[in-house]
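Re: that backbone. Tokens:
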């Protein structure tokens, strides 16, 4: 249970007594022996030895380079999200580290096991404002967002520290680690066999069950509640405990509500007990008398007068593998520390041994059915929209993608206004087919590079990225990597001429109506600029088409599906 032991690669060269190798060779050796299948890196001055080591060993570990460290590190994060394994991203000095910081903040927020390795100045020039200078330690830049930071100072410790970084990043609660390596270590020559750890010896078990007494108390509270709700957090999906979540829900019969902005889904949205996000279930939440929140982020927006999603009278139980999550935003009546897999499994067993009363369970299921009817009506309304309507409504866009791509595609949600509709318009039988950045992370430009990393992590699957044009504009150059690596990602760009979530949200909150000229002046919209997303994509080697209706979108999607190549479809939307 929870086994994360590793097997060393046979291709790692043996180091004889007379062998000469460098610190850069040690970096590559260690990553291969740990089982890293890809490494993400941009080489610069001071890193040429590392670049040469990866070039010489490119048949043993996949090498991903890119155009800037922001996009590169977001690709690495997407790869780590999909595989669930630590991913190493090696960046250049202080400027590269600064560019990678957005990815580090989102990896912290969404508990992604990424290891950021910064090259720093040579040891002999430290503190002299040397080339690509760093005033002090580069790892100071990331301490708020890292599980662990460390500055390597001798080449002999490279294997030890990189292996430790792998373990720390991958142990729940997962998260980023930041390591720095002085540039001169890459070219230091060593000889003879070094005393190195046998990485395959470690057998790690990291999913302890919550305490039995607490689980029994939680089962009793839920069993006796008149209007219970289950709050399914991103941790459930991230730690791959969906089956256990479904078993508990079905034993109780209660409505299941996701986080408002989940990074992962932990429950099938097609299940009859799934009722949506908190925003769509305010009344149901306000009447709840008991709630179980599993790995759930009650992320506040910070808006003036914002209210908690649960009434003060509701009894709250929290369960998480992360002790920081148990009593962070709302104070619970009962906090259970444990991995959701075995803990939910045991909780379901307790409810099956002493079942919920049949009439109570029927009432719970009736509340689910009422909310599902509202969702079904919204879908029917979108389905009834004509296929030749232009500009294309966002709800119709999503239904067309859902109908053409089906439930087997991996979906990346990264459109701010599109995101308002995805939960209702797109159903997931497999929750793990959904990826997004959480409200806690909130990073524009995340979607396209993350989609590419996710596609690398699932080479036998197809990935569709739902992007707003505002989101894409933050990181548009990244799509060159899709052509470079021949990744069959389909980027769907909803072109509504701007970053409309900002002025639309402002108008909604303050009851105003911002004029188009003012929106343009504030750079929230593009002022009618003839931005050619399709031409840009073609210039980078992608297939691309512009569409204005659902019928045209469907035809383009069929071409993209058949080609198995990277595509960008620009949708003239609302």
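Recovered sequence:
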């Amino acid at each position: 249970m929870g086994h994360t032991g590793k097997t060393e690669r046979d291709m790692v060269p043996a180091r004889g007594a007379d062998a000469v190798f460098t610190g850069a060779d040690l970096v590559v050796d260690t990553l291969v022996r740990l089982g890293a299948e890809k490494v993400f890196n941009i080489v610069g001055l001071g890193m040429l030895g590392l670049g040469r080591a990866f070039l010489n060993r490119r048949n043993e570990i996949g090498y991903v380079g890119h155009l800037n460290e922001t996009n590169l590190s977001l690709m690495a994060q997407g790869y780590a999200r999909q595989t669930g394994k630590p991913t190493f991203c090696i960046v250049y000095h202080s400027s590269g580290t600064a560019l990678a910081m957005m990815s580090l903040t989102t990896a912290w927020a969404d508990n992604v096991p990424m290891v950021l390795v910064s090259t720093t100045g040579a040891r002999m020039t430290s503190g002299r404002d040397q080339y690509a200078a760093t005033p002090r330690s580069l790892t100071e830049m990331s301490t708020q967002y890292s599980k662990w930071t460390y500055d390597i100072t001798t080449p002999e410790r490279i294997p030890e520290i990189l292996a430790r970084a792998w373990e720390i990043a991958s142990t729940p609660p997962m998260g980023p680690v930041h390591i720095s390596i002085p540039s001169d270590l890459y070219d230091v020559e060593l000889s003879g066999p070094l005393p190195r750890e046998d990485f395959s010896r470690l057998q790690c078990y990291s999913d302890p069950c919550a305490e039995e007494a607490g689980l029994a108390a939680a089962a009793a509270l839920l069993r006796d509640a008149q209007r219970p709700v289950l709050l399914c957090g991103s941790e459930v999906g991230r730690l791959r405990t969906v089956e256990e979540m479904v078993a508990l829900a079905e034993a109780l019969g209660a409505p299941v509500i996701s986080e408002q902005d989940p990074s992962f889904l932990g429950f099938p949205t097609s299940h009859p007990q799934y009722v949506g996000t908190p925003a769509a279930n305010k009344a149901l939440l306000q009447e709840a008398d008991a709630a179980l929140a599993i790995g759930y982020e009650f992320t506040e927006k910070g808006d003036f007068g914002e209210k908690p999603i649960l009434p003060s009278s509701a009894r709250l139980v929290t369960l998480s593998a992360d002790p920081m999550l148990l009593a962070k935003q709302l104070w619970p009546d009962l906090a259970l520390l444990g991995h959701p897999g075995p803990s939910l499994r045991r909780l379901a067993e307790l409810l099956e041994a002493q079942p919920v009363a049949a009439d109570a369970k029927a009432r719970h299921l009736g509340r689910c059915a009422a909310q599902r009817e509202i969702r079904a009506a919204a879908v029917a309304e979108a389905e009834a929209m004509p296929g030749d309507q232009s500009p294309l409504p966002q709800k119709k866009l999503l239904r067309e993608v859902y109908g053409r791509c089906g439930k087997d595609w991996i979906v990346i949600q990264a459109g701010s206004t599109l995101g308002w509709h995805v939960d209702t318009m797109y159903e997931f039988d497999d929750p793990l087919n959904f990826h997004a950045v959480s409200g806690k992370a909130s990073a524009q430009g995340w979607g396209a590079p993350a989609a590419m990393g996710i596609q690398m992590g699932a080479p036998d699957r197809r990935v569709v990225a739902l992007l707003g044009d505002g989101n894409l504009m933050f990181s548009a150059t990244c799509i060159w990597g899709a052509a470079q690596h021949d990744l069959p990602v389909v980027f769907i760009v909803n072109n509504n001429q701007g970053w409309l979530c900002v002025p639309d949200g402002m108008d909604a909150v303050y009851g105003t109506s911002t004029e188009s000229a003012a929106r343009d002046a504030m750079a929230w919209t593009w002022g009618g600029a003839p931005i050619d997303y399709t031409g840009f994509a073609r210039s980078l080697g992608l297939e691309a088409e512009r569409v204005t209706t659902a019928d045209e979108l469907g035809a383009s999607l069929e071409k993209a599906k058949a080609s198995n190549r990277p595509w960008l479809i620009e949708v003239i939307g609302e």
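The CA atoms of residues 299 and 407 lie 28 Å apart. Residues 358-383 form the longest helix (26 residues).
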